[in-house]
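LHFPL tetraspan subfamily member 6
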Amino acid sequence: MASSLTCTGVIWALLSFLCAATSCVGFFMPYWLWGSQLGKPVSFGTFRRCSYPVHDESRQMMVMVEECGRYASFQGIPSAEWRICTIVTGLGCGLLLLVALTALMGCCVSELISRTVGRVAGGIQFLGGKCEIGWAYYCTGAGAAAAILLCTWLACFSGKKQKQYPY
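Predicted structure tokens:
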């Protein structure tokens, strides 16, 4: 099977996919911040939460729902900053996945990734990798940081030189 990637390009493709997967797992998990409320441990991420308080109408008091889930609506996310973080981080993870899957296809398709395409893909990884404290936060940040630093550098050497045709 022909490849449009150099050996460095294959490493870039695999590492890009690993970084994208790490960032997406961290983005999806509700363990960005940890704490306690009403004597129960709570955690939340940009669009998911675990153990959250609700008002019980029958008992006229706050009770803790001890389960994980998404907010009922986008407006249910606690603040405008967290909503912006959800959008920006989600778009960044989407860009990382797009670049990683394109790079992986370059392992199997001849002349898909040129040096210019590799450098553009590395630039997209650099722009899409900034994130804003639990393990999911660090997971997202580590995946983004690796994409920014290592994958961007490897992308510059990923494509094979194009053959020059005389016509």
